[in-house]
Amino acid sequence: MARAHSLRRRTITTAACWLVGLVIFFPILWMAVTSFKTELEAVEIPPKFLFFDWTTENYGVVQERSNYLLFATNSILLSLGSTLVGLLFAIPAAWAMAFAPGKRTKDLLLWMLSTKMMPPVGALIPIYLLFRDLHLLNTRGGMIAVLFLLNLPIIIWMLFTYFKEIPGEILEAARMDGATLWREIVYVLAPMAVPGIASTVLLNVILAWNEAFWTLNLTTTDAAPLTVFIASYSSPEGLFWAKLSAASTLAIAPILVLGWFSQKQLVRGLTFGAVK
Amino acid sequence: MKLMLRALSGACVLAALAFPAAADTKLTIATVNNGDMIRMQRLADDFTSKNPDISLEWVTLEENVLRQKVTTDIATKGGQFDVLTIGTYEVPIWAKKGWLVPLDNLGAAYDVDDLLPAIRSGLSLDGTLYAAPFYGESSMVMYRKDLFEKAGLTMPDAPSWDFIAEAARKITDPSGGVYGICLRGKAGWGENMAFLTATANSFGARWFDENWKPQFDQPEWKNTLAFYTQLMKDAGPPGASSNGFNENLALFNSGRCGMWIDATVAASFVTNPKESKVADKVGFALAPDNGLGKRGNWLWAWSLAVPAGSQKTDAAQKFIAWATGKDYLKLVAEKEGWANVPPGTRTSLYENPDYQKAAPFAKMTLDSINSADPTKPTVKPVPYVGVQFVAIPEFQGLGTQVGQLFSAALSGDTTVDQALQSAQAIATREMTKAGYIK
Q1: For B206-215, what is each residue's pLDDT tens digit?
Q2: Quick count: other Cβ atoms within 10 Å of Cβ B34?
Q3: What's CA B368's distance to the chain center, in Å?
Q4: Contact predicate B127/B356, CB 8 Å
């Protein structure tokens, strides 16, 4: 009896999970389906879901018009680059805040987060002028710097919460054994915090990958990532949904694959340290 | 792990050092994602083969993104672009600020006098050309010949608003999913306000009087807005307050609209059987009037200009002369047919019998463009230039605010009177703040 009850419960839970998952995934599925329609079918009301003439014409147009590989390479370099540079700064910062907090650490954390509260357009002109004078407009180096600064508060916050869950006594023990600060962070702290660091890296790669305001405004061709690639397929005059869907599908494909392979790490990292 | 980390950080440093290398003369061209522009990119080999020392880099963006980016760049003299695609709204304002290079080096073969006078005057300041038109457009009525026939109606070449309203109400058949008229309702200075400002001109209204005093408290504006909201309520599609050009294009092409008043460039979309279900059933007419001597059509030209921050002005002008010259029109005709030639810029194109034959909408486009005068857009005198906009820097913000009020009046959230009152208050405040009203 009890077994039948739990089986029913499990079926219901699984079905509910699938339903929620489908609802969340549906827009992406819809985009992928639309990318195989013609422009007229894409705007047709009522829309057709599966029964239409599937065509890969849009992908052909997108390939012909844009250098997808250049945009994708830039996206990979910018998102990985900015996240790694961010880690170099954030790990020591989070270490200090978690294990050697000062009187103002809490205020400092909040203050760092406050930089995310201003709309980015407020800083556009000053940053643009700086970039112009430093010859950083449309360069990968400049974009890595911007994305790194943009995500630094989030990286520090995430690492801080993970580090706080690690007992300070272990680090103390390492110090007692004569470990230097560098060794303590690299050989003792980092291995214990790997799930936390991994999920921080993943989340920030995704954030940098999706960042559209600065990448659109500060790059033109050489350093332009996939956000610029997508933006070039929206049109004020003329139907564009199918082509835009094809471009968007191409743009999210790499990050989707990355997310798929690392979902175990991501989930482990996100639930790390919580009361289980 | 360690090795990977090293490799990745090495890659970052390399990437950081990889500044773009300078070619002999590389022109960076900012452009919008419109059919004619994309065609120009495809045909640009013709230019580079004639000018082997010049290479072209394209930055194609959506209109609003492009406008923001190009404005930032030109205001800070960032020098990211050598050729800009801008419209008739920006040209007079930017030229006045000294942000654009005068186009005085287009070559002897360019034939400036061949440009359509209305378009040319919209792109000039004190007689000097600051941008060359790539394609020009006005607005007109597109209608379904089959639905008109069924309702026993005949569309005149130059209809009045009363006729349009009557026909729209007669054709509407919500149970069959057909609405008499589709018009813009989405808020924005270039969306609903382009249509409504042009319509208001034909109702005798104006944005400002000679002393820059806003005129939304005058009966002409009330007539315009009351007519528009009532007509859309009776004969428009549901949810019209979120419809812009593309939404209406989709509705019209799937057979839901009896009439659509919008940009002349739509003519080639609605008659294209690949994109439109009603391609063979579309007729064209001039934008409507009210017998006051002004029609409700606008004037716009996507144009190419050289920003003052560019270091390559000679090469840039060479490119502009190629893209907007007579030979380019011939090149497009040769490769893709006369119907695909960018319209609305040159007199000689409309005198060409091949073009007249290939483009059934040619005459209507030309008549529409010719009947719009950006320097005298309204029945009563005004202190500004521009048909469906007011060519002052403040208009983008103000026009969008007023557009939101009028969009709310269309959706029924506010009344026409409330919308006009708020528009008057906002316009008065903004114009006083900007120093126009003393």
Answers
A1: 999 999 999 9
A2: 22
A3: 14
A4: no
B8 vs A65, A80, A125: nearest CB: A80
pLDDT for residue B7 is more than 60: no
3-state helix, strand, coil in chain A (%, to 5): 75, 0, 25
Chosen for mutation from B5, B12, B89, B300 (greatest number of chain A CBs closer than 10 Å) is B12
Are B277 and A40 a contacting pair at CB < 8 A? yes
Burial of B379 (0-12, 13-18, 19+ CB in 10 A): middle
**What count of other Cβ atoms lies within 10 Å of the Cβ of residue A160?**
21
Task: Work out the average pLDDT over B425-430.
Answer: 96
B interface mutation test: which of A48, A221, A237 has the most B CBs within 10 A?
A: A237
Question: Can you tell me whether residue B289 is helix, strand or coil?
Answer: strand
Residue-level length of chain B: 438
**Cβ atoms within 10 A of the Cβ of A53, count?**
9
CB contact under 8 A, B34 and A236: yes
- Which pLDDT does position B411 carry in this prediction? 95
Q: Does B109 touch chain A (CB under 8 A)?
A: no
| Chain B residues with beta carbon closer than 8 angstroms to that of A231 | 61-62, 65
CA pseudo-torsion sign B368, B371, B373, B378: negative
d(CA B78, CA B98): 14
Query: Any CB–CB contact under 8 A between B245 and chain A?
Result: yes
Distance separating alpha carbons of residues A193 and A185, to the nearest angstrom: 10
pTM surpassing 0.80? yes
Contacts of A228 in chain B (CB under 8 A): 59, 61
* Domains, in order of start, for chain B: 21-130+300-358 (3.40.190.10), 138-298+385-433 (3.40.190.10)
- Give the pLDDT of residue B75: 87
- Cβ–Cβ contact B86 with A under 8 A: no
Nearest CA in chain A to B79: A132
Q: Give the residue extent of every domain in chain A.
A: 65-271
The answer to whether residue B262 scores a pLDDT higher than 90 is yes
For residue range A24-49, list pLDDT tens digits in order: 999 999 999 999 998 888 877 778 88
Q: Please tell me the distance in Å from B365's CA to the nearest CA on chain A.
A: 17
- Average pLDDT (B9-28) is 58
**Token digits for A181?**
């600060």
Q: Could you report the predicted ipTM of this complex, rounded to two decimals?
A: 0.77
Query: CATH says A65-271 is which class?
Result: mainly alpha
Strands B282-286, B128-129: pairing is unpaired
